[in-house]
Amino acid sequence: MVRLINKDNIKHVIKLMHFFIGVQDKFTYIREYNNPGKKPCIYVMWHGNQFCVHGIPNRSKLNILISNSIDGDIVAAACDYFGYQVCRGSSQRRGAVSGTLKMIEKLRNGENIAIMVDGPRGPLHSVKSGAYLLAKEANVPIVPVMWYSTEPTFVKFPSWDIMTCPFGPCHILNVYGEPIYAGDKSEEEVSEEIRNSLLNLDETAHERYMDAKKLKLWKKKK
């Protein structure tokens, strides 16, 4: 099967992507609810909510692990456009180890990390080990996060991860869970805490969003 995106047209795809996100950024209004402000920390989210990193503050100190693939080149270009830091790795053992070491170094230098815990290919809402291993090694908290909006321009795609993305003017709320500490806990215990926290955020996001509307949060200056 011929790939629609390949090494011959990747530069054109990235230019088109830059144009789209540059326009969309002018109409995307994100506010935060309950960000604990831990520094450094590991922000964790479902793969379908990966674009919520757009609402996390201090982009210059937010590092995102991205695979060494053509698809990863596109995501990395988007991250560079918005000023995030990028750590390239891969699903292969050597690339994964390299990416993990880079992430640990960033955390020890006081910078934050963002990880899609059920990515890059699922299963949906199944927490993988990356966040736990990094939190354990660097001794930093894990902070669950998702984004939510009731507006029709907040689109859900029929993809395996139920990807969400704004198309047009959209008021979005980033909702955060309580910090999770690895400590002496097992990987299974921490993974369950992460999963439960993210599922709880999904259940309560609508209520938080409506509270934010009552408070006219989007009319206030950042």
Protein traits:
two-stranded antiparallel sheet, 7-stranded mixed beta sheet, Cobalt-precorrin-4 Transmethylase, domain 1, 37% helix, alpha/beta, 5 helices, 222 residues
Give your account of this protein's structure.
The chain has 222 residues and is α/β, with parallel strands linked by helices. It has helices at residues 10-25, 70-82, 93-108, 130-138, 187-214, and strands spanning 28-33, 42-45, 62-67, 85-89, 112-116, 142-148, 154-156, 164-166, 170-176. The protein is globular, with a radius of gyration of 17 Å. The N and C termini lie far apart (47 Å). Residues 91-95 have low confidence and may be disordered.
Strand line-up of the largest beta sheet: 1-9-6-2-5-3-4
Principal-axis shape equals globular
Rg for CA atoms: 17 Å
CATH topology description: Cobalt-precorrin-4 Transmethylase, domain 1
Helicity level, as a percent range?
Answer: 25-40%
Q: Could you state the oligomeric state of the chains shown?
A: single chain
Provide the residue-averaged pLDDT: 88
The total count of helices amounts to 5
Low-confidence stretches: 91-95
For the record, give the distance between the C-alpha atoms at the N and C termini, rounded to a whole number: 47 Å
Task: Give a short summary of the structure.
It is built from five helices and nine strands. It has 222 residues and is of the alpha/beta class. It has a seven-stranded mixed β-sheet with strand order 1-9-6-2-5-3-4, sandwiched between helices. It has a two-stranded antiparallel sheet with strand order 7-8.
